[in-house]
Amino acid sequence: MKRAIQLIRRRAISSIPVLLVIVLLTFFLLESASGDAVDAYLVSIGGGDPSLVQSLRQSYGLDQSVIARLWLYLSSLARFDLGWSVAFDRPVLDLLIERLPNTLLLMGSATTLSFGLGSALGILAGARPGSLRDRLFSTVSLVLYAIPSFWLGLMLSIVFSVELRWLPTSGIETIASGRTGLARVADIATHLVLPVATLALIYLALFLRVMRAGMAEVWRLDFVLFARARGLSRARIVLRHVARNAVLPLVTMLGLRSAAMLGGSVVIESIFAIPGFGRLAQEAVSGRDAPLLMGIILVSAVLVILINLVIDTLYAWLDPRVGASETAS
Q1: Which ranges of the chain would DSSP assign to H, the alpha helix?
Q2: Is-contact 119 182, C-beta < 8 A?
Q3: How far is CA 255 from the centre of its chain?
Q4: Which residue pairs from 213-217 have beta carbons closer than 8 angstroms and sit at least 24 positions apart in sequence?
């Protein structure tokens, strides 16, 4: 436990300059882009006179220098103030708090489902490498992983929502349903079936292939041959020896895919009209809302760092050799 706490502390401290670099790079990249929120607003209303443009730029603080705006933004961040959304005319923090739970629910459900089923199917495939079951699972996983997520989401929606009418087509819950308690939970779960299935099927295939490949490598190691020579049952060798050692690369892949799934949620949230984090980023880009986009990128970076911190801790718990050199110094 002490070693894990030291590892978390070291990684957390090292993430501070990473966040600072992300903030600076994002700020200057957005500054170098053509157009801003005022231009987007003028396009939406069909133009405006110079006095209106000057008034809007003054109210949004766009008439100041780049360094002045950077200093203002950094000083606001120090007070945990992410600024004001120009497109929504609301505080950025309020928008993020409103939208983020939907994306975390979508990502968490899809990640848990894909990791659990992918690991289990990978163990079944890797229990007998080269068998008919192994070839079947590997072929199906390759097909699933090759399917674009937007196409799979649309096909699932057409089949189960339009043709069969079993599931809702869009949204996170029924609008103005007035449901509370377990009824609302069931309604949200029903709306999440298709988007979660779309994400989970794609990443399930990846976890299956990684687990199967890891087990195929472990089968060749000497300690597995020794276990078989001792007369241990195949089920015990698979679960207690082969799968346990093959799960380490899978944990690493879990961290990478969890971070990538945050970006992949943009497509899924757009297809199923889920008011989540990814869709909010799309709206911020289309509205050229720099403060909102900065807040989204910053919170996304924090989430990625937290995910990798959890994965590093889990990896250190599974393999005591990981992080030993860091905590020893």
Answers
A1: 2-32, 37-45, 50-60, 66-78, 92-127, 132-146, 149-157, 181-218, 222-229, 234-236, 243-271, 277-286, 290-318, 324-328
A2: no
A3: 9
A4: 213/126, 214/122, 214/126, 214/245, 214/246, 214/247, 214/248, 214/249, 214/250, 215/122, 215/123, 215/125, 215/126, 215/127, 215/129, 215/242, 215/243, 215/246, 216/126, 216/129, 217/246
Q: Are residues 126 and 134 in contact, defined by beta-carbon separation less than 8 angstroms? A: yes
**Residue 16, Cβ neighbours under 10 Å: how many?**
10
Q: Kindly give, in sequence order, each residue whose CB lies less than 8 Å from that of residue 69, ignoring residues fewer than 6 positions away.
A: 31, 61, 62
Q: How far apart are CA 5 and CA 312, in angstroms?
A: 11
Which among 192, 161, 313 has a CA at the least distance from the CA of 252? Answer: 313
CATH code 3.40.30.10 for 93-286: no
**Where exactly are the structural domains of the chain?**
93-286
Per DSSP, the three-state class of 230 is coil
Distance CA 219, CA 242 (A): 7
Q: How far is 300 from 86, CA to CA, in rounded Å?
A: 20
Question: How far is the C-alpha of 97 from the C-alpha of 215, rounded, in Å?
Answer: 41
Task: State pTM to two decimals.
Answer: 0.79
What's the chain's Rg over C-alpha atoms?
A: 24
pLDDT tens digit sequence for 95-154: 999 888 888 888 888 888 988 898 889 888 888 888 888 889 888 888 888 888 888 888
* Tens of pLDDT, residues 175-230: 877 788 888 889 889 999 999 998 888 888 888 888 888 888 888 878 878 887 88
